[in-house]
What we know:
A: alpha/beta
Amino acid sequence: MNKKVLLTLAMITILACNFLFPPARSEQVVTSSELELKGITIVRLRPEAGDLQTMLTEESQKATALGQIPVVEFDASWCPPCQAIEQSLGDKNELMLKAYDGTYIIKLDVDEWGWGDSDLHDFEFDGIPVYFKLDVKGKQTGAVVDAGAWNENIPENMAPVMDKFFHGE
Amino acid sequence: MKQLVLPSLLILFLLVSCTQPPSSVDQASLSLGSFTENDVDVSIQLEKGLQDVSILSATFTPPDGYHLYSKDIPIGGLDGLGRPTLLELSTESQIKAVSELMESVQPQIPDFEPKELLVYPAGRITLSIKIELPAGDQWLDDSVSVTYMACSSNLCKPPVVGRIISVRIPSANTFDTPYHGKEIPNE
């Protein structure tokens, strides 16, 4: 009798543990919000999560559902200009927030995705950071801009160019 | 007229004698190899210095408007940003370094953030190190490694870290052989 009760209690405890403390998922999370910014969504895709084009299609559809413009950004942790842009958004610079308003930024780290690799689906670029506009199917629209479009990486230079790229024709 | 010819010839002779002889460094310069990766051209040279000391150099030529980072920033970058420009000997190398790494131009504070991340002026940079070649009269296989990363004020190429370059080097007594500036023997 005692053995049965103990066994039942042990099983209930194990099951409860699984609910209370679920085991960590071994796979990478597909996307992760990096910055909490009003009107702007920033996600990062990781190669372990699957095929790039499939993920870009999914993210573009999410963007459209939110009424936002899907844009791919290639960046890297070692890239000072990339970090300067991220910093200006992190600092909630008003010019940058206005320029990025209504965008859905899909970040791809070149250390993870490679540079000019075949699985990048025709994303061609000479330097980073670089931005590609996507359509609702996650395909490139042909609109591309890189940081060569402005001079020093300060919001006063970056914001007008990005605003025009995101919201212009 | 005859009187003028002799002094003229004498002056001409003196002028020719006074002109500088070709640099000994040029005469004793050996190209050890070159490659291009991530749009930066890299060439490795060996030059005969004074006495037993030679000079091993790497010249890095980034694209127009691009700069390289100071040799003195951390290998992993400053807070992860940038990568140093380096020319290094492998631990098993038969070449003995007898100086610190020297740079052809001084790094400077950039016009852009982060200001602590020192850069060389845009364009070509040469790093050199004084070395002693191994004794003997043979040609030897060795290797050096280079690290660099090229950026403009707002665009970056991917870093190249610790790329190994196989080189064929002369030993101390071989460096005065007629191979200078010519093809390096394979065997």
